[in-house]
């Protein structure tokens, strides 16, 4: 089981466990506010934006080119931004902390 | 006496209806929320139906929300139930099973249904399918796995028909697309994009046939024979209808709501009856940015109108004001569209990389940018969106020059 912690817009910390799927799906299935996943996870809507805790960024890695471009749609983009539908849950993600973008 | 609880009834639990129910809670609606749909499945994402749900053997339906979320948000979800009638005087809706719900506010999110073209003999064919519900696609999958020949024809070369063609091809079928017009996607895009997708499909082995008006079909031994009015015939064992959809307006028109190409709503998504709203594929609405009425078939429109309806029902007067966007995935190509190209006078095609490919097509009405079609080019899509949102004039000469990158430098100084 991989543990992933979300910090929501109300500054609430929610830790969830999962084995597979994308981080966006995990968030939607657990009602994490602010992650909508309107396009179903195909990098088309940018409604699944998270900021990765800098401590874990190396583990997760940078966004792909299309993802980086799509993130530009959001004014709150920063160097630690990722679209959570593009983050597949693997052991590497264990313990990461993600802040839901405003 | 206890004051009666307010109730918002939503008919249709798909992208528009489900998002509206949750948005009502977010906006603080205190009353009951009743969400009704004919479909027996827990509400799901429709776009994957013609894409991954069809072509990936292990793919499941992707729920819009998990079942617990409806409970947690106190949303009464009634599936496999069809609304037969709206009584707008008594403010109630009636299901086919006779159940009746009173409403304070009613939201029609009834979407659209496939058009069945007037083709002779269609009713006698068992293996003919439409492309709208999970049930439709599951039936196609079953027919595909049972078929020996795996020969499919799709009537209609629109985005969803083409996605289905690409998926079936990926699954190993022999696929023919029969398009009545002289090019595929004729109704929805420029000839450049039509040609691009025509070539893409041909390269991947899909047989694209244009100028084919199918007028009859019949069972012929164990195949389906398709007759076109140019005297050509095609034999297949799976027939798919992809000629478009029409809005589900029947219950609305019986309730005497104003109907045009869809249920007519104002900028607050309100219909001609002040207690009734209409959102998503069924709504015929005014787009402020373009200055005309449209009916759109997209997730973006369904989701964003659902939020506007919820805000207005919760008492905050907010107008719908968005730039439409849409996507389509076929083979390894991602098409992203922003804006509405209707009425364009000028097209600029930017072929940044024909190999990969990375292309964008920019539609203008004189000097005003109307829309962008971006092929594997999220950058063009994103900057197109920004230019449209902020009404920025784009320098056409720079845009034509692929040595000028797509970014703010394309603005007219
Ligand atoms: C195969 C496919 C692929 C698509 N791909 C894309 C894509 O890539 N990108 C994109 O943006 N859009 C895509 N779309 C379009 C998108 O799915 C629709 O725009 C969206 O589903 C509209 O949502 P809606 O809620 O308005 O209507 P619908 O999804 O049509 O839902 C309406 C619901 O109302 C229910 N209903 C109707 N009448 C009644 C009644 N009387 N009683 C009870 N229930 C009723 C129906 O059962 C239905 O579930 C695709 C659509 C299909 C079918
Ligand atoms: S869910 Fe749409 S971009 Fe991630």
Automatic annotation (TrEMBL), chain A:
<keyword id="KW-0411">Iron-sulfur</keyword>
<dbReference type="GO" id="GO:0140647">
    <property type="term" value="P:P450-containing electron transport chain"/>
</dbReference>
<comment type="similarity">
    <text>Belongs to the adrenodoxin/putidaredoxin family.</text>
</comment>
<dbReference type="GO" id="GO:0046872">
    <property type="term" value="F:metal ion binding"/>
</dbReference>
<keyword id="KW-0408">Iron</keyword>
<feature type="domain" description="2Fe-2S ferredoxin-type">
    <location>
        <begin position="2"/>
        <end position="102"/>
    </location>
</feature>
<dbReference type="InterPro" id="IPR001055">
    <property type="entry name" value="Adrenodoxin-like"/>
</dbReference>
<dbReference type="GO" id="GO:0051537">
    <property type="term" value="F:2 iron, 2 sulfur cluster binding"/>
</dbReference>
<dbReference type="Pfam" id="PF00111">
    <property type="entry name" value="Fer2"/>
</dbReference>
<dbReference type="GO" id="GO:0009055">
    <property type="term" value="F:electron transfer activity"/>
</dbReference>
<protein>
    <submittedName>
        <fullName>Ferredoxin</fullName>
    </submittedName>
</protein>
<dbReference type="InterPro" id="IPR036010">
    <property type="entry name" value="2Fe-2S_ferredoxin-like_sf"/>
</dbReference>
<dbReference type="InterPro" id="IPR001041">
    <property type="entry name" value="2Fe-2S_ferredoxin-type"/>
</dbReference>
<keyword id="KW-0001">2Fe-2S</keyword>
<dbReference type="InterPro" id="IPR012675">
    <property type="entry name" value="Beta-grasp_dom_sf"/>
</dbReference>
<keyword id="KW-0479">Metal-binding</keyword>
TrEMBL record, chain B:
<dbReference type="GO" id="GO:0005737">
    <property type="term" value="C:cytoplasm"/>
</dbReference>
<keyword id="KW-0560">Oxidoreductase</keyword>
<dbReference type="InterPro" id="IPR036188">
    <property type="entry name" value="FAD/NAD-bd_sf"/>
</dbReference>
<dbReference type="GO" id="GO:0016651">
    <property type="term" value="F:oxidoreductase activity, acting on NAD(P)H"/>
</dbReference>
<dbReference type="InterPro" id="IPR023753">
    <property type="entry name" value="FAD/NAD-binding_dom"/>
</dbReference>
<dbReference type="Pfam" id="PF07992">
    <property type="entry name" value="Pyr_redox_2"/>
</dbReference>
<keyword id="KW-0274">FAD</keyword>
<dbReference type="Pfam" id="PF14759">
    <property type="entry name" value="Reductase_C"/>
</dbReference>
<feature type="domain" description="Reductase C-terminal">
    <location>
        <begin position="325"/>
        <end position="408"/>
    </location>
</feature>
<keyword id="KW-0285">Flavoprotein</keyword>
<dbReference type="InterPro" id="IPR016156">
    <property type="entry name" value="FAD/NAD-linked_Rdtase_dimer_sf"/>
</dbReference>
<dbReference type="InterPro" id="IPR050446">
    <property type="entry name" value="FAD-oxidoreductase/Apoptosis"/>
</dbReference>
<dbReference type="InterPro" id="IPR028202">
    <property type="entry name" value="Reductase_C"/>
</dbReference>
<protein>
    <submittedName>
        <fullName>NAD(FAD)-dependent dehydrogenase</fullName>
    </submittedName>
</protein>
<feature type="domain" description="FAD/NAD(P)-binding">
    <location>
        <begin position="7"/>
        <end position="305"/>
    </location>
</feature>
């Amino acid at each position: 089981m991989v543990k992933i912690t979300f910090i929501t817009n109300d500054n609430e910390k929610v830790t969830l466990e999962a084995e597979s799927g994308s981080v966006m799906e995990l968030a939607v299935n657990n009602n994490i506010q602010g992650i909508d996943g309107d396009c179903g996870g195909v990098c088309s809507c940018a409604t699944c934006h998270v900021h990765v805790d800098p401590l874990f960024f190396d583990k997760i890695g940078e966004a792909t080119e299309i993802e980086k471009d799509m993130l530009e749609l959001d004014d709150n983009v920063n160097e630690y931004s990722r679209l959570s539908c593009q983050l597949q849950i693997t052991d590497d993600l264990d313990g990461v902390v993600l802040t839901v973008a405003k | 006496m206890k004051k009666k609880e307010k109730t918002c009834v939503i008919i249709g639990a798909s992208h528009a209806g489900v998002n509206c129910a949750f948005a009502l809670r977010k906006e603080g609606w205190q009353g009951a929320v009743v969400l009704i749909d004919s479909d027996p499945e827990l509400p799901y994402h429709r776009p994957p139906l013609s894409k991954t749900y069809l072509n990936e053997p292990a793919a499941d339906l992707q729920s819009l929300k998990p079942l617990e979320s409806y409970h947690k948000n106190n949303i009464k979800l009634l599936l496999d139930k069809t609304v037969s009638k709206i009584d707008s005087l008594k403010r109630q809706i009636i299901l086919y099973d006779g159940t009746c719900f009173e409403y304070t506010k009613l939201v029609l999110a009834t979407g659209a249904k496939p058009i069945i073209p007037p083709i002779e003999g269609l009713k006698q064919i068992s293996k003919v399918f439409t492309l709208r519900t999970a049930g439709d696609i599951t039936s196609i999958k079953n027919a595909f796995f049972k078929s020996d020949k795996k020969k499919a024809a799709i009537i209609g070369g629109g985005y969803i028909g083409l996605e289905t063609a690409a998926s079936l091809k990926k699954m190993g079928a022999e696929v023919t697309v029969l398009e009545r017009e002289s090019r595929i996607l004729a109704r929805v895009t420029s000839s450049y994009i039509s040609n691009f997708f025509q070539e893409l499909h041909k390269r991947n082995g899909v047989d694209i046939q244009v100028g084919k008006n199918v007028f009859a079909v019949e069972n012929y031994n164990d195949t389906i024979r398709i007759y076109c009015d140019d005297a050509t015939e095609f034999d297949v064992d799976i027939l798919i209808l992809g000629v478009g959809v029409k809005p589900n307006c029947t219950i609305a028109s019986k309730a005497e709501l104003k109907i045009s190409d869809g249920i007519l709503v104002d900028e607050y998504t309100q219909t001609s009856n002040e207690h009734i709203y209409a959102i998503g594929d069924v709504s015929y609405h005014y787009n402020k940015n373009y200055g005309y009425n449209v009916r759109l078939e997209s997730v973006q429109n369904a989701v964003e109108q659902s939020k506007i309806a919820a805000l207005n029902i919760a008492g905050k007067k907010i107008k719908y004001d968005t730039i439409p966007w849409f996507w389509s995935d076929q083979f390894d190509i991602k098409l992203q569209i922003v804006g509405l190209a209707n009425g364009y006078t000028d097209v600029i095609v930017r072929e940044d990389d024909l190999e990969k490919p990375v292309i964008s097509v920019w539609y203008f009405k004189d000097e005003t940018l109307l829309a962008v079609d971006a092929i594997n080019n999220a950058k063009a899509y994103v900057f197109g969106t920004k230019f449209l949102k902020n009404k920025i004039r784009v320098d056409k000469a720079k845009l034509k020059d692929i040595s000028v990158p797509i970014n703010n430098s394309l603005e007219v100084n």
